């Protein structure tokens, strides 16, 4: 895998996916989605937070420039401190592709051993897998880092 795209060398750090208040998490998510320069706001996203009983998830698609689509599926555990609701994501799936074309990027931890976080990179011109690595939780990207990586990978589609 191209060293620029590899996350396996990220040294141990505080968990970037740790507990956050629900209001703060949602506000950060909305602001980063609105401000990210690779998101094509002319084609509205379909991301929605869903709540069924005690189960909370984020699901939908984000349309990006260069015809890239990012499908997102995240599942959260919740806890309360008094009346303050906190959330922490425990299951992730990001799958990106060029509309009508090839896969570009996949991140997930949806196998039986959810302690393994998988990262796959594909050549957007051919669909050939060009990188695979298994990550630890603290190496797994936050949402905006996934968008950043998509922008970098798909630069070959310009021109």
Task: Give an overview in words.
The protein is of the alpha+beta class and 159 residues long. It is built from 2 helices and 8 strands; from the N terminus they run βαβββββββα. The protein has helices at residues 22-35, 143-153; strands at 20-21, 48-52, 55-63, 68-81, 84-98, 103-108, 117-122, 129-135. Strands 1, 2, 3, 4, 5, 6, 7 and 8 form an 8-stranded antiparallel beta sheet that branches. The longest helix is centred in the first third of the chain and has 14 residues, at 22-35. The chain is globular and about 55 Å long. The two termini are 24 Å apart. The model has no long low-confidence stretch (mean pLDDT 90).
Keywords:
single chain; 159 residues; alpha+beta; 8-stranded antiparallel β-sheet; 2 helices; 16% helix; 40% strand
Taken as a percent bin, the fraction of beta residues is: 35-45%
Contiguous runs where pLDDT drops below 50 for at least 5 residues = none
Seen as an oligomer or otherwise, the chain set is single chain
Radius of gyration: 16 Å
What gap, in angstroms, lies between the N and C termini? 24 Å
How confident is the prediction overall: mean pLDDT?
90
Largest sheet: 8 strands, antiparallel
Series of secondary-structure elements, N-terminal to C-terminal: EHEEEEEEEH
Q: Structural class from helices and strands?
A: alpha+beta
Q: Figure out the total of helices.
A: 2
Total strands: the figure is 8
Residue share in helices? 10-25%
Dominant shape: globular
